[in-house]
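Entry 12.
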Amino acid sequence: MSDSFPRQYARTQRFSLGSPRNFSIAEDGADVLFLRSSGSEDTVNALWAINTDTGIERLIVDPREIGAEDPAALPAAEQARRERARESAGGITAYSVDGTGSLAAFSLGGELFISTTSSGSLTVIENSDGAFDPRISQDGQLVSFVVNDGVYIAPTDGSVAAHSIVEGDGETVSWGSAEFVAAEEMRRSRGHWWDPTGTKLAVTRVDVSSVTTWHIAAPNDPARTPQEIRYPAAGGSNADVQLYIINTDDASRKEVTWDHTAHPYLVDVNWEENQPLTLVVQSRDQQSMQVLETDENTGQTKTVLEITDPDWVEIVPGTPRRWRDGWLTIQEHGQNRSLLFNEQPLSSPDQWVRSLVAADETRILYTASVDATVVDLWSHDGEKADCLTDGNGVTQAQSSSSVTVLDQSSIEQPAVTTVSKGETVWTVDDFSATPLVTPQVHFHLTGGLNAHSAVLFPTTETAEQLPIVLDPYGGPHAQRVMRSRNAFLASQWLADQGFCVLVTDGPGTPGRGNGWERKVRGDLAEPVLQTQVDALTEIGEIYGDRVDLSRVGIRGWSFGGYLAALAVLRRPDMFHAAVVGAPVTDWRLYDTHYTERYLGHPEEEPANYERTSLLVDRAEVQRPLMLIHGLADDNVVAAHTLQLSSALLEAGHPHEVLPLSDTTHMTPQEEVAENLLLLQVDFLKRHI
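Predicted 3D structure (tokens):
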């Protein structure tokens, strides 16, 4: 039987299996380490290296030679890390290296391994059962890791069994791990950092005693005890996060002090050679971010840099960062988000800067957009900037002083990863599947705001007018309309089922200046929805003889699910059916750091929460909805969908509810992922 796109899409985990990922560049630039599974349907990642002089790839560690990993036996902390990182593969999913890249540490099945990268030889660390997040010291002598709620260390040669340097204190205090909002919203997935000498660790102490306890039940298994989670909902208490310096020889410790009342969020920690221990902290309202330097002898800190913003200070990868005699930052400046050095712009005024890739004494590498659908890599020597890529697609990069790793994709070509050293460029093998669909995308600027929109029609042309399906995410921190082929695979398949598919990035999405992201401050509903309405109207005018505006559906997941429900509840005149996946329906039930950034504290700005809630909408014209939610979701909990369903029932509003047992905010199960696509199409065909 021939394969189908939904089955291929599910089985290849959205075409991610077999692709190289998680690159680390050795200090001398001779090797680049990375993870990759052996094929397009292989979920087990192995550790590989490519030699930058010869381009020869070699397998360092194959997890299958160690033993099969039982997903059910993974430590709870590792399961949570994978959920926060949206990690659905197995095998080696994360690793750390020493300063030279000669040793790599990883946990497999909750046991800690050290690999010599030149030979692939393995050392098992004794007393490491349940190991999570191993980190090797720069000199390669010691490895630290978390077991349960404590931090352990061991020699990397395995000569001595691991021992604890600090243990958890009761049920609510843990050491060495990132709390929920740090991992989910701040891009900080770790909680312990080595000093450059390998004799001290900076370790977080997280106390969740004041955070509200929620329960995630398994209705499909009534005998199972509900999972308890500490969820920091908007307006509620956050975890209390402290930082300690711990000596590895005697486990003595000293608290790092700062004003937790003014800046409770610990955003990042850095401990670089010849530099003091450095913290980045943020205020609860996120309008202030400070960089603090620590006196290691006293634990006291001083502020060396502060960034403020009347809306919020965005956390941007790679910054703030020391450079030459000052600081590199990426922040709002003029009409764009700019790369600044000591508050003075280095990037061009027309660039929206996305990330700082690397910086040494001679140059800075950063990614930026002039057109929001394109991401290029730029180099700046302090005087002028040069574009290093072709302006035709989406680029991600990592770099050292001698080696650069580029991942580049476009609409015309699938993603290609290259490793360059000087004039020598090698392409890293990619074993991912070739999709059964080829997106044919038409890009437009729509509405009065010139929102970026993409339109896809069936591959086989038809003379009939087609119903329209909107397929947005539409919210902060995620773009759908990018010049990258894989971004539109599912949308093209949906179009091939007999629809015109419209994807629009509205206010709040990244990539654009002139206050584009800030337009959602105080209202995550109306500006976002109106942009979708405007795009739909204009696309109807452009393709008037090919589309039917009397038959319009919308589908989405997470924020996209919220937007889909919002569309049919508030604008049933324009939208006639909605597939609503894992939506936030009441922002009071979402986390502090994300929600308060856009809507403020619910006690101080309650009107923002009222105007954005789906539970208060009573549509005059009732349109059908399909509500889908994973019952094990600990990010957008199933209560969101259940409360919306109750409100719809009270209003006599017809809808369908599809509960997904044992499914989180991701849908990695092959059969579930495949059938979700098929059921959505069936629903849309029935109703539009």
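Annotation: The first strand starts at residue 21 and ends at 25. The CA atoms of residues 334 and 351 lie 11 Å apart.
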